[in-house]
Amino acid sequence: MKVFKFGGASVNSVERVKNVGEILKQFSGEKLLIVISAMGKTTNALEKVVQAFYDGKKEEALQLFEQVKQQHLTTARYLLVTRYLACEEQLRDFFTEVEWLMHDKPVREYDYYYDQVVCIGELFSTAIVSQYLNEIGINNNWTDVRDIIRTDDNFRDANIDWEFTLAKVHRSIIPLFDEADIVLTQGFIGATDENESTTLGREGSDYSAAVFANMLDAESQTIWKDVESVMNADPRQFPDAQPIHELNYNEVIEMAYYGAQVIHPKTIKPLQNKGIPLYVKCFLNPDLEGTVIHSRSLKYLPPIIVLKENQVMLEMSSKDFSFVGEHHVGHLYHLFEKLKVKPNLTQNGAISFLCVMDDRTERIEKLALEASVLFDVQVTKGLLLLTIRHYNEDILRNMIKETSILLRQQTPETIQVLMKK
Ligand code: ASP
Ligand code: MG
Hints:
The chain folds into two domains: about 1-225, 3-Layer(aba) Sandwich (Carbamate kinase); about 305-420, VC0802-like. The chain has 13 helices and 18 strands. The chain has helices at about 15-25, 40-55, 60-80, 85-100, 110-120, 120-135, 160-175, 205-215, 250-255, 270, 325-340, 360-370, 395-400, and strands at about 1-5, 30-35, 140, 180-185, 190, 195-200, 220-225, 230, 245, 245-250, 280, 290-295, 305-320, 345-350, 350-360, 375-390, 405-410, 415-420. The longest helix has 22 residues, at about 60-80. Aspartic acid binds near residues 7, 38, 188, 202 and 204.
């Protein structure tokens, strides 16, 4: 058994859905569990629906939702002939689910409504793709993953009840493979024991796929993306970024930690625990080699570059020239936790503590204000944080020219440089 994940970009048009069908033809006869995201930018569009509803603008919310509905009905109409009506009926049930909810004024917390509305994107896309595949002879069973993945009620960042979900996978998913080779379901969403919908955090579909791969003891997981493979840098920032065809779990976790947007960081653990390889493949050209991520150690890795823009440095100096000790640092970390900011780099000196963070202006202002009770705080904005794993002096020199360096930290493996253009 293999687990496939198709992201939003792989199903964002009629042609792309057809392309998924073409890819799957190459795997005929194999057992596949397929996880699919919402089409294109649907999740963002649904976020706007919830926001309007929660702001008390019911008409606007319904109107925005109407647009999302029409887009999906149109896609279904172009894709389907014999199964159009069945698909429309399925979609209408989901429409009703959301419209009923928005009928009343919001009385619960925002995150609850967010999950009830936003989860519909994945239900729409999978319903359409499943009907299309069945229509062209790629038999599959569609499943509402909310009956399988049980979570707590930490809406928008729900935690999976591993034991319950595993039992459900055995009882309800495995038998479906006796009927058809493919089980097709949603990423990113789940439900509580009270049948309330939940979501697992933005971009969470990779993680859903990994949970299934783990529970089904899959031979592999494949993430189908619009890039040729994992790259050693973001090609939008570095046009001569190179593909990396082989990585291991630890390296991917390190890359994610330093801010590379490769794979949802939660994805790795469920795979690593069972030694299941993860493939990243290009849905635009499945013949390309892509990337394999496994547990073995690798002798050679190219320099991996992560450049974070829009960084802010806070320099906090003790007011009375006393050393910055555990008490001060402890207090700061409490503030970080409370304000939900995460330092990307820190350095402790005798009378000052430096930290570098993403510039979320509102939170940074709060942090600076609260920290100013204990410290003199100085804020510097508009900085760049460069991280290079497996660096060498040549590449470093090349990357830091024409910048001034404010801070530099290094281990034998990783160097981080805070720069100003
Ligand atoms: N549709 C969700 C999102 O856009 C989940 C995912 O794509 O992984 O965040
Ligand atoms: Mg996505």
